[in-house]
Write a structure and sequence with these properties.
alpha+beta
């Protein structure tokens, strides 16, 4: 028989205060996310303001974004007044007058550099412009434009034609045969291969660029029936299946590889995410110096005038403003704490890995988060947050702070070696291997053992894959 019972327990637990939670949240953010958060807080908090040497709002964005680029503003020149358009002799004069007023000009009256920049043309606009000069019925043109608008950035039609039947409300409704004809029209446009529904179809649409009829026929057979073997570079297997000499098949495969499997990439510009480092390492008078990158440090401060006015006239009804003031103080303090912690951790890493900066990956030492935490005087979890999505610019390149940490691997001499150094050695061994006899993972393991490094074959395989190096069979086929 069960009874209800009340019992009082006393136990000690650890809880994060709101201020500490705010600091931890800001610390683990990437530079871009942190800058965006601070900029958003700056826009809605009246107690925060930019430092006096900070640029205006339209310039602060470029400092706080990851892929910032310098911008130059040019005031628009006033459009010239045209008193009487009838006085213009012909269309050429009208075009010249319009061009003179529509361009942007710099302060000295010269044409702005922005006017001379080429306008990027998207794939859709390029295809629509070709359809616009074709003599098509309105219905056929509408269906062709529907197909163009359904293409992805690679230039492929990933949507089944059956689903496009309901896109355009035509009377009478469009049929599948009409859409197939529209797709064929699109596939005839430039660039060749656009409108394909698979890689094989994309390559087949481009085979007309092969001048030799015999090679074109063989290429069609390879693309149609042996595409997987082509992707794996199995030239000997293709030669056996098609009954052609290996040299002829190899030449044809090489010609196929010069075709474009993503024709849509020629137009428009894909977004490129640039990495702006958090810290910069330079060698000054023989010593490695670490400094914060000023481009990622949004300089905000507490507006003392507003803060003093609020404190002077503070009442119980001003709870919202009190919250804004507290948030502003936390933001300023935690921003300073964030960057001082990043700088301390980066300096500790550089002191431990100075030989990597001097001699490269082969000199990377094993390093654990606990070692940096003990040296800096912070918790190991804090080091993990600091090193995540934070980057260091060195003379050897830009590296994430986590790149400098690796576990120790034993060697026959008793000294420890880092995984980064092992990967660098594996890369050097493969680059120096004979072209006609590439090293297998087992052979690389044996050579590392001869150099006193105890590494398992599966570890060598993992490191080779991390370096994006093909297996020995594929490297041997490429060499053949």
């Amino acid at each position: 028989m069960s009874f209800l019972e009340m019992r009082h327990d006393t136990r000690q637990t650890q809880a994060l205060s709101p201020r500490l939670q705010h600091a931890v949240r800001l610390l683990q953010m990437s530079s871009m996310d942190f800058a965006a958060t601070v900029h958003t807080t700056l826009g809605k908090n009246p107690f925060l303001e930019l430092a006096e040497d900070e640029p205006e709002d339209n310039e602060i964005d470029s400092d706080m974004e990851t892929a910032s680029e310098p911008e130059t503003e040019h005031p628009l020149a006033a459009e010239p007044e045209i008193q009487d358009l009838d006085n213009l002799d012909n269309d050429r004069d009208l075009w010249q007058a319009d061009a003179a007023g529509s361009g942007t000009r710099s302060e000295d009256g010269e044409t702005s550099a922005l006017d001379l920049m080429a306008v990027e043309v998207s794939l859709a606009s390029h295809l629509h412009s070709q359809l616009g000069v074709m003599t098509l019925e309105a219905r056929d043109l509408l269906l062709a434009r529907c197909v163009v608008d359904s293409l992805d950035e690679d230039g492929y039609l990933r949507t089944p034609l059956e689903e496009l039947l309901t896109v355009e409300q035509l009377d009478p409704p469009a049929t599948l045969e009409e859409l197939e004809c529209a797709l064929l029209r699109v596939q005839c446009l430039d660039p060749l291969g656009v409108g394909a529904r698979s890689v094989g179809e994309c390559l087949r649409l481009q085979l007309s660029t092969i001048e030799c009829p015999a090679m074109r026929e063989l290429a069609n057979t390879i693309v149609t029936q042996h595409l997987s073997a082509l992707a794996s570079r199995d030239v000997n297997g293709i030669a056996r299946n098609v009954g052609k000499p290996v040299a002829v098949v190899a030449e044809t495969c090489e010609r196929i590889r010069r075709l474009d499997p993503r024709p849509g990439w020629r137009f428009g510009s894909a977004r490129v995410d640039y990495i702006v480092p958090d810290v910069v390492v330079k060698k000054v008078r023989g010593n490695w110096v670490v400094q914060l990158n000023p481009a990622i440090v949004p300089k905000v401060r507490l507006n003392q005038t507003y803060a003093e006015l609020f404190q002077r006239h503070r009442t119980a009804q001003n709870t919202e403003l009190a919250g804004h003031l507290q948030e502003a103080k936390w933001t300023v303090r935690n921003a300073q704490l964030r960057f001082s912690t990043i700088l301390d951790v980066a300096e500790a890493i550089v002191r431990r890995q100075k030989y990597f900066l001097e001699f490269g990956a082969m000199a990377m030492k094993p390093l654990r988060l606990a070692e940096i935490a003990e040296e800096v005087g912070i918790h190991e979890s804090t080091v993990s947050r600091v090193t995540n999505n934070k980057y260091m610019a060195t003379p050897s390149g830009v590296f994430e702070l986590k790149h400098f940490f690796s576990r120790a691997l034993p060697s026959s001499s008793g000294a420890a070696c880092s995984g980064t150094a092992i990967r660098g050695l594996i890369k050097d061994l493969i680059e120096a291997e004979p072209a006609n006899a590439p090293y297998s993972d087992a052979e690389i393991t044996r050579q590392l053992t001869q150099q006193g490094l105890v590494v398992a074959r599966r570890t060598v395989t993992k490191y080779r894959q991390m370096l994006h190096i093909d297996a020995v069979e594929r490297r041997r086929r490429v060499a053949c």
